[in-house]
Design a protein that fits this description.
The complex is a heterodimer of chains A (319) and B (697). By secondary structure, chain A is an alpha/beta fold. Chain A has three domains: 3-99 and 148-192, Rossmann fold, CATH 3.40.50; 111-147, no CATH class; 199-312, no CATH class. Chain A has helices at 15-21, 25-31, 48-53, 71-83, 92-96, 108-118, 171-183, 199-202, 253-256, 274-285, 288-297, 301-305; strands spanning 3-9, 34-40, 59-65, 68-70, 84-90, 133-136, 140-143, 147-152, 162-164, 191-192. In chain A, strand 6 and strand 7 (140-143) form a beta hairpin. Chain A starts with a strand and ends in a 14-residue tail after the last helix. The mean pLDDT of chain A is 93. By secondary structure, chain B is α/β, with parallel strands linked by helices. The longest helix of chain B is centred in the first third of the chain and has 19 residues, at 109-127. The N and C termini of chain B lie close together (11 Å). The chains are: A alpha/beta (319), B alpha/beta (697).
């Protein structure tokens, strides 16, 4: 019997869904084992009320991509939790808050101020900001979901059975996950679905993989400075690569194309606060002069270290 | 479930005077897993320890928390008590409620009590998570490196060598002997410095257990106690020491243009570019100073010689006179010298001192040749000095040397030099002076008295004045020495010299203040001797950095503990002695050198050493081979091994010192520092963050 499968896009970009579609023929093969009962708002023509009408625990597995930003998203994931046997936080946003989570460095008022008043392209002479309710033509009451004060990861709203990192998850990794789902060969609940090894572990640039000893970092460069050597470890060259701290299920995709890892894969097992661990590791490997450079060159370090994980950090929002 | 006993020490009034023991006891009793709480006047005393042992023996407790003083001094005592009673000694944790509570908050007793509770709660939280560990033993290399070949280094080396230890003695100058070799006589016995020093220097050179590296410097030091790897640079001598017999034929032929101030005579005379530091040098070998050498034959080492018309090679004078060909220019020589690698178990640092230069003291007319430092005076009156010990004013030394040169060549010459009639000593020049050094250089009072006494005994007509701030002569036979000096007629003036003025006839006008008269005084002196401060050598800081030992505010090496560990450093296996540790006289330097040698012996004699198991360990399952940890380890203890085709970090526990740098940096938390695991430390922090409430595990 085919597994009943649901997919929901919360505050995300649908990139994670693209990663699933990227499986191409392998997805078609898998579809024999999967029955899609809900895939909104991107793929299936299905309404929220249809989901709400489903019996509890009738969905075998539900994937959520995107963070929780709006009341609507919170409502749907709560419904989904009730209806699904297994709920997966799929991708960096659902698992850690992701890029949208960086909004937690600002208050809701600041965000509205920027988006609805201050950007160059804003044309808002009446000073309209989103309202949860408005009446049109004196008789039609329209509603909008509420914009919460902070962005949350999925598990901060509902219980989550599995976490998958990546922005988006690498399609090879997705293939393994689909296979695991279909075969029922899943790890204990609450865990990340990962090899548990770092990007460095699979990175051809890692000095340790070449039998060399890593050196301390003497200089810090931003990616806009020069073109990195294509062979040498990016961190050794001074480009802040988070490969040592990040799950390497991506197969070191970014370092392989000369881009430093930014940590979308999520922290290694046992690490709770990605940014704090990144600071501890980098502060150790950077020489004092390089630390000074780091402070000088990156005006907002929190946005670098917590690019994908601010909402789940120990200090996770502006109050 | 662990059974934790909490033992609270009153430390007499030290703790109980500010911390309410009864209140803390009640608090501790309600902490999770705590089964026994006891207090005692002095927990570290025999009966105090017995309380703990008794509870362990009876099976009442299997974890021990002592709330007392600092673990730095007392942790070993209590660990031992646990061990003696049959409990693994790493089931022990300490809360420092003396230094951190009663001492720090003596006047805020309630807060001190509250803090004591929280620290005890944190210790209990950690104790619940403690794991049993076993001590381990590491093999020790029994060879010793002694750095510095002065009197301290010589004694340290000889004591070790006589006890059967192999010693490498490294000295940066071409000869051992140090500053003591420059002294004429030594206080308080006035025996000849060279007479007592030279036999020791020879003994060092001939000792089968001592390998001597002179004209050498320590380049780098790696490793730790029992296993130091030291690179020593043997500087280029430009003379083949295998061939040089120390005959000295080359010394006189070196041309006047190549002559530079002689270090051994403290600049009072000149030496050639090729030189032997002093007549009793050990080893007695010549070196060429490449900065002074003017390349007489127009050729440097390894270059083709220029030739005369009839094709004979043109040789440099030193090359020509050398009977053994030791300074032949035929072979090229590496200006960087040679690197020697040594493996030793312990290191003794005895690099000595230098005296401050007179140029710092503008008020004392430093440009006058007749204003000299006391060490220069020492050379002036020494039989091996520039004048062979004949007392003349230093401004006439060039005349004397010229006369001597003529006489040596068999020419007739008349010696026309001035003999001093008045000599003035100025004490505390640069010492006890806020502008330079606040410390007392300790030996100046005595050596000024000594020089005055020697001069007065030899030349009774001399007028000698010594200006003192205080006469400091504590020490065996020292004050008697001072009284003897006074009786000889040396004029001791209590007061400071404000200035010295150079007169046209090269005499000096000394202006001072006589505190006994309560008046300014003036006198005209032929020589002014400045007792300039003893300073650490310029490169001592650099050496300390290489060794990883500490330097105090004044630049001298810092001992581990002023009273209890005076020759140890914070780095185990490295000992210090002599003036590198601080100004001191010869008896003190020798005593310290012997102490350092004895400390090194007692460390190395067993051949192995017990090491605490508080080291880091890599979990190869969690290690992802990122390589971050390897360059961070200050001891080079991390290597990579292949596990299942992947390179994983591995820590050599014999080398690891448990600093925890790797554990803090590990991105995947694969490294555990035993005794300070993440769980243990976080439990402590969380408990304090919750104001003493322990989180359920």
């Amino acid at each position: 019997m085919a597994l009943k499968f649901a997919f929901y896009l919360a505050a995300g970009c649908a990139g994670c869904e693209m990663a699933l579609v990227d499986l191409a023929d392998r997805l078609i093969d898998a579809l024999g084992d999967l029955e899609i009962v809900f895939w909104a708002p991107t793929v299936a023509d299905i309404k929220y009320k249809d989901l709400e009408a489903m019996p509890d625990k009738s969905i075998d597995i539900a994937l959520v991509d995107g963070a929780i930003r709006l009341s609507e998203q919170e409502h749907i994931v709560k419904v989904l939790r009730k209806k699904a046997k297994i709920l997966v936080a799929f991708g960096a946003c659902a698992a850690m808050g992701g890029i949208p989570g960086l909004a937690n460095l600002h208050t809701k008022d600041e965000i509205f101020e920027t988006v609805y008043f201050n950007t160059y392209s804003t044309d808002n002479p009446d000073g309209v900001v989103p309202q949860t309710k408005c009446v049109v033509d004196g008789k039609y009451e329209l509603t909008l979901p509420e914009f919460w004060n902070e962005v949350k990861a999925l598990h901060q709203v509902v219980d989550v059975d599995y976490f998958v990192g990546g922005c988006p998850p690498h399609h090879e990794h997705v293939a393994k996950i689909v296979e695991a789902i279909v075969s029922g060969n899943l790890p204990p609940k609450g865990s990340w679905i990962t090899d548990g090894k770092s990007v460095c572990d699979v990175c051809p640039r890692n000095p340790a993989n070449k039998g060399e000893t890593r050196e301390t970092v003497k200089e810090v460069k931003r990616t806009i400075e020069g073109i990195p050597d294509e062979e040498r470890c990016l961190l050794q060259q001074g480009y802040l690569c988070f490969g040592p701290i990040t799950q390497g299920d991506c197969g070191a995709s970014c370092p392989k194309v000369n881009i430093p890892c930014r940590g979308c894969g999520g922290p290694l097992p046992g690490v709770k606060d990605f940014g704090a661990r990144a600071i501890a590791s980098l502060a150790s490997i950077l020489e004092d002069s390089a630390v000074d450079q780091l402070m000088e060159k990156y005006p907002s370090l929190a946005k670098l270290f917590y690019r994908y994980s601010l909402p789940v950090a120990t200090i996770n929002k502006r109050r | 479930m662990p059974k934790i006993g909490v033992y609270i020490c009153h430390c007499g009034e030290n703790i109980a005077g500010a911390v309410n023991i009864e209140e803390v006891k009640k608090f501790a009793e309600q902490l999770p897993d705590v089964v026994v709480v006891r207090d005692y006047l002095f927990m570290c005393s025999d009966p105090g320890q017995e309380i703990i042992k008794e509870d362990i023996r009876k099976g009442l407790v299997d974890r021990v928390v002592v709330a007392a003083c600092t673990p730095r001094t007392h942790e070993p005592i209590f660990r031992k008590a646990c061990e003696d009673a049959g409990l693994n000694k790493y089931y022990f944790e300490m809360a420092n409620i003396r230094d951190q509570c009663s001492w720090a908050h003596w006047h805020e007793k309630e807060k001190a009590t509250e803090k004591a509770k929280q620290l005890i709660a944190a210790a209990v939280a950690k104790a619940r998570l403690l794991e049993p560990l076993e001590d381990r033993y590491v093999e020790l290399n029994k060879d010793v490196l002694v750095i510095g070949g002065g009197i301290a280094g010589i004694f340290a080396a000889l004591d070790l060598a006589n006890a059967g230890f192999k010693v490498y003695l490294v000295e940066k100058s071409p000869s051992i002997g140090g500053n003591m070799a420059k002294l004429d006589k030594t206080f308080p016995t006035n025996d000849c410095s060279a007479c007592i020093l030279t036999p020791l220097m020879v003994e060092v050179a001939n000792h089968p257990n001592i390998t001597l590296y002179t004209y050498s410097e320590v380049e780098s030091v790696e490793g730790t106690v029992g296993n130091f790897k030291v690179k020593v640079r043997k500087k280029q001598t430009y003379v083949d020491w295998e061939k040089c017999t120390g005959c000295g034929a080359c010394l006189n032929v070196c041309p006047p243009k190549a002559r530079v101030p002689d270090e051994f005579n403290e600049g009072l005379s000149l030496r050639g570019a090729i030189y032997i530091p002093f007549p009793q040098a050990v080893p007695k070998k010549a070196v060429i100073d490449p900065d002074a050498c003017i390349r007489c034959s127009g050729r440097w080492f390894g270059e083709e010689p220029r030739r005369t018309k009839d094709g004979k090679p043109i040789l440099a004078p030193c090359e020509k006179v050398c009977p053994t060909g030791a300074c032949s220019r035929d072979e090229p020589r590496d200006p960087n010298g040679e690197i020697i690698e040594l493996n030793v178990g312990a290191i003794i640092v005895a690099t000595g001192y230098r005296v401050m230069d007179k140029k710092h003291f503008k008020e004392f007319a430093p440009d006058s040749p007749n204003v000299i430092t006391a060490l220069q005076m020492e050379r002036l009156i020494s039989a091996t000095g520039p004048t062979e010990g004949k007392l003349i004013v230093p401004s006439d030394i060039p005349k004397y040397l010229e006369w001597k040169r003529k006489i040596e060549k068999g020419k007739e010459a008349k010696l026309d030099v001035r003999k001093p009639k008045v000599i003035t000593f100025v004490s505390c020049v640069g010492s006890r002076d806020e502008r330079f050094h606040t410390y007392c250089s300790k030996v100046c009072c005595m050596y000024m008295l000594k020089q005055a006494m020697l001069l007065k005994e030899k030349y009774p007509d001399l007028d000698i004045y010594i200006f003192f701030i205080d006469v400091r002569t504590p020490g065996k036979d020292f004050d008697e020495y001072y009284m003897r000096c006074r009786k000889l007629g040396v004029k001791i003036i209590k007061g400071k010299v404000g200035g010295v003025q150079r007169l046209p006839d090269e005499r000096l006008l000394v202006r001072g203040y006589d505190a006994d008269l309560g008046k300014p005084v003036e006198l005209i002196s032929d020589i002014v001797v400045l007792a300039t401060a003893i300073e650490p050598n310029t490169d001592l800081k650099d050496l300390a950095r290489k060794l990883g030992i500490n330097v105090g505010a004044e630049g001298f090496l810092r001992e581990r503990h002023t009273k209890l560990y005076p020759v140890d450093t914070m780095t185990e296996g490295i000992f210090i002695c002599g003036c590198a540790q601080g100004p001191k006289d010869i008896p003190d330097s020798v005593a310290q050198a012997k102490a350092a040698a004895a400390s090194a012996m007692s460390l190395l004699a067993p051949g192995k050493m017990k090491v605490e198991p508080l080291v880091s360990e890599v979990n190869p399952e969690k290690c992802t081979g990122c390589g971050i940890c390897a360059p961070l380890c200050p001891y080079g203890a991390i290597e990579y091994v292949e596990i299942d085709g992947k390179r994983r970090a591995k820590i050599n526990e014999a080398i690891c010192k448990g600093c925890g740098v790797c554990a803090a940096a590990c991105p995947s938390k694969a490294i555990t520092l035993h005794g300070f695991t993440y769980e243990q430390v976080l439990a402590q922090i969380r408990t304090i963050a919750r104001k003493g409430v322990i989180e359920e595990v």
